[in-house]
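Researcher: Next sequence.
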Amino acid sequence: MTHVVVPSDQIVGGGVLSQNEKPTFKERLKRFGKKYFLEGQKFTNEDARTPVIPPGASSLQRFALEHRKQLAFIIPPVFMWTWWWTYAIGNNIFHLYATRYSMPITMFFGAFIGGMTCEGGGAVAFPVMTLFLHINPTIARDFALMIQSCGMTSAAFTILYMGVALEWHSVIFCTFGATIGLIFGIEVVDPAMSKAQKKMFFVSIWSAFACALFLLNTQRKRKTYLNIQQFCWWKGVILVVTGFFGGILTSFAGTGVCICSFSVLTLVFSINEKIATQTSILLIAGNAVTGFFWRAKILHAIDEMAWEYWKCTIPVVVIMGPLGAFVGSHVHRQTLAWAVYVLEIIALVSGFLIVKPGLGLSLVCVGIIIGGFAFFFVMSRLGLYLLGTYPDANKPDTTLPIENKNSRDIAET
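Model: Next structure:
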């Protein structure tokens, strides 16, 4: 008997499409949604994807293993809401919503985007506060650090609890460099910049990052990895330097180490975008906590307005951050990329229309975008060179198991 293997992309709704039969609009829409929004999660190993319940496990252990995903999403907001409601009732902060309602509304979307992409919630909070609400960039930066210390740490917990894959070399080495860069930036770089420079440099650097993402997406069917291959001292140095510059960016914009890590991991070390995104969330969570501590406990310099916005926004971000991380771990990388493209186009156009920078600052911003594109292009070439030096460079890509068995292989997504 002859067996015929039917490609998965010709199977729709349980039926088989002949080569001459065109799928209907409903079938194409279903396949589109499945590919870009239900791709499935990447896990460190098969045990993380399908946890094995050990013999003799207690009912609590069994419940925790069987409902890992639900608990990963529920635990952070339950913990944070318990703390917040205790504080809010005891200090009667509800009257603040009469004047500080704008940021809870903004971060309803900002925390979700921050948890889903590699940008962090500050990528939405900072431009909204500085460009649209005309708030001092220092206050906006502090608020971004403060709110990410709640929202992004909640998202980080969700990622860790679900057991999805991370690049731990980046977490360790970038965090070390980012801590030094953040403190140096707060003390030296940020005071030397004007308000207009902070606003325009932010949108320009983020636009350059969108260029990096575009370059990445031009590399069709590229081989990707779970972690940095053949890790050595000079690769560790690259990660430390990456973290250092990311920390400086965070020092005046409230976020930045995330996009620096993402760019280096994907372009230079050929790490899968979803893994780089999840790793970036852990990095910005740690950097935000460090910055919050430094500004609040070492310098005692956080403005009362930032505290008020923070108090009102906490209950929103501790839900939307983990939700974004959960959704982001399922969707296709192109979906995440287009979310970044749209955000950066809006921020860049708004920056030039609202700030109206002079000729000199405008030329510097254009230079940052063009120079950033050139820099990321060189990084992508370096990544392709390194890719050819790995022992399995010519072997099929079998990077990670994914939960959705009908999804394409990582190399083809």
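Model: The beta strands are 11-12, 15-16. Residues 83 and 89 are 10 Å apart (CA to CA).
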